[in-house]
C-alpha cells in the first residue's frame, strides 16, 4: 500500500513476540524483525498486519521451530516515516542483530529503513504493503522484495473499475509522497487512456487540520478520489468533503481501507464509497489461510495475508539457507518462492523443513497467491473492490 508519512514522535520502540536472542550469534533458531507504522497515519491498519507475521512465528514454533531452535520476532515502530524507520532499522539490524526484516509497510518507510542500515548490513527486507512504483527501481543489491503488487497495477485496476461503473470524470487528491504520487500517476494514465477525464489533480500534505482550500480546487467533478491514509489526511479530507456537499461519489485506494476512516463521519453520507486493495485468488492455499481466522486474528484484514506470506517466506529462506546468517539469504528466498519445487501451502512448516532437509526443492504458494519474484523483487497480484456498506468495508470481488 503504501508509502506513507510523517510523525516524528518516536524512534524505534518495539514489542517482542518471543524472547529476542541475537540472530547472527545464536547457535540455533533465528530472529527476524518487523517494521511498521504502529503510530502515525496507518496506526489502525498496522496491528492486524503485524498479527499476520506473529501467526507465522507461532506456527513455526509449534511445528518444531527453525534451525533446531525458536523463531523470534522483534517489532519496531517506523511511524510511516523515513527518518523514524531508519532509527528503527538501526536498532533491529545493529543492536538486535536480526537476520532479516518483514517490512516496512509504507514505501518511504521501507526505503528509509533499507537505505539507513539495510543496504550496508546486507539485510533482506520483505515488505507486505509497500506498493509504490518507486520500490521497483530502488538500488538494493537484490535485497528488497514485496509480497503485494505495485500501484502501477492498482492504479490501472482502479481506473478500469471506475470506467466500468460509468464514472467518466474524476477529481483526484493524493498525499504528497511516493505512495500518493505513484498511485495518482498510474490512475491518471490508465483512466485517460480509457476515455475518462481527470478534471482536477491536486496533491496535499499529510497531517493538516484543514483541507478546504484543496477541496475548493477539486469541485470540477463530483466524483472525488482520495489517495491517502485512513488515520490521517484521508479521514480529514473525506470528512470535510462530506461537509462541503460538493461531491456525490467517494473513491479511495488501499491506504483508506480501515474502520478509522469513518471516524467523525455520518456513515450514511459515504455509503457506497469505492475502494481497492490487494487481494487473493481462489484456491486451496487461500482457503487454508482463511481457515486461520479466529477471535484474535482477522485473516482478511488489509495486508494481513501479505504479511503472513512475507514472514513465512522469510522463515523458509532462513531454513533453506541453513543458518541465521544474512549471507546467502536472498538467493535462498528466490529458491523457496519459485518453481520448480514441491508446493508448500500456508501452515505447512514441518512439511517444508522435512523436504528442505532431504534436499528437495520447494515452492511456496501463499495466502496472497503465487509469489514468484521478478528481477526487481516484485510479484504479480490481483486487486479487489471494496465498498462501504452500513459503516463497514465489504469486499465485493476481483477487478478484471
TrEMBL record:
TM helices/strands, residue ranges: none
Gene3D superfamilies: 3.40.50.2300
Pfam families: Peripla_BP_6
Gene Ontology biological-process entries: amino acid transport
InterPro entries per UniProt: BCAA_transport (IPR051010), Leu-bd (IPR028081), Leu_Ile_Val-bd (IPR000709), Peripla_BP_I (IPR028082)
Transport in keyword set: yes
Endpoints of the signal sequence: 1-25
Record-annotated Leucine-binding protein domain positions: 31-337
Superkingdom as given in the UniProt entry: Bacteria
Alphabetical keyword list: Amino-acid transport, Signal, Transport
Protein family: Belongs to the leucine-binding protein family.
Name the record gives this protein: ABC transporter substrate-binding protein
Amino acid at each position: 500500500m503504501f508509502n506513507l508519512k510523517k510523525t516524528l514522535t518516536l524512534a524505534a520502540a518495539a514489542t517482542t513476540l518471543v524472547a529476542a536472542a541475537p540472530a547472527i550469534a545464536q547457535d540455533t533458531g533465528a530472529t527476524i524483525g518487523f517494521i511498521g507504522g504502529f503510530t502515525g497515519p496507518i496506526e489502525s491498519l498496522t496491528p492486524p498486519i503485524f498479527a499476520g507475521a506473529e501467526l507465522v512465528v507461532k506456527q513455526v514454533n509449534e511445528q518444531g521451530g527453525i534451525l533446531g531452535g525458536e523463531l523470534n520476532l522483534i517489532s519496531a515502530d517506523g511511524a510511516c516515516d523515513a527518518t523514524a524507520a531508519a532509527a528503527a532499522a538501526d536498532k533491529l539490524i545493529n543492536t538486535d542483530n536480526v537476520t532479516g526484516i518483514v517490512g516496512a509497510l509504507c514505501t518511504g518507510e521501507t526505503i528509509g529503513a533499507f537505505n539507513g542500515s539495510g543496504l550496508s548490513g546486507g539485510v533482506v527486507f520483505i515488505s507486505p504493503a509497500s506498493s509504490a512504483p518507486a520500490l521497483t527501481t530502488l538500488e538494493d543489491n537484490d535485497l528488497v522484495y514485496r509480497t503485494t503488487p505495485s500501484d502501477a497495477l492498482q492504479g490501472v485496476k482502479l481506473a478500469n473499475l471506475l470506467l466500468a461503473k460509468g464514472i467518466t470524470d474524476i477529481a483526484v487528491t493524493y498525499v504528497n509522497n511516493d505512495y500518493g504520487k505513484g498511485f495518482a500517476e498510474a490512475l491518471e494514465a490508465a483512466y485517460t487512456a480509457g476515455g475518462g477525464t481527470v478534471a482536477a489533480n491536486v496533491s496535499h500534505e499529510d497531517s493538516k487540520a484543514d483541507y478546504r482550500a484543496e477541496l475548493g480546487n477539486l469541485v470540477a467533478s463530483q466524483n472525488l478520489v482520495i489517495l491517502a491514509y485512513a488515520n490521517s489526511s484521508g479521514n480529514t479530507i473525506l470528512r470535510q468533503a462530506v461537509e462541503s456537499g460538493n461531491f456525490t461519489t467517494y473513491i479511495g485506494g488501499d491506504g483508506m481501507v480501515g474502520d478509522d476512516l469513518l471516524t467523525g463521519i455520518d456513515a450514511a453520507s459515504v455509503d457506497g464509497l469505492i475502494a481497492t486493495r490487494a487481494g487473493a485468488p481462489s484456491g486451496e492455499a487461500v482457503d487454508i489461510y482463511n481457515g486461520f481466522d479466529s477471535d484474535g486474528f482477522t485473516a482478511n484484514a488489509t495486508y494481513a495475508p501479505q504479511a503472513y506470506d512475507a514472514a513465512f517466506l522469510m522463515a523458509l529462506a532462513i531454513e533453506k539457507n541453513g543458518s541465521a546468517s544474512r549471507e546467502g539469504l536472498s538467493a535462498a528466498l528466490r529458491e523457496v518462492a519459485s518453481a520448480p519445487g514441491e508446493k508448500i501451502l500456508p501452515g505447512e512448516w514441518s512439511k517444508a523443513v522435512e523436504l528442505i532437509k532431504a534436499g528437495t526443492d520447494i515452492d511456496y504458494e501463499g495466502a496472497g497467491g503465487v509469489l514468484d519474484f521478478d528481477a526487481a523483487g516484485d510479484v504479480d497480484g490481483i486487486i479487489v473492490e471494496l465498498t462501504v456498506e452500513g459503516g463497514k468495508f465489504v469486499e465485493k470481488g476481483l477487478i478484471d
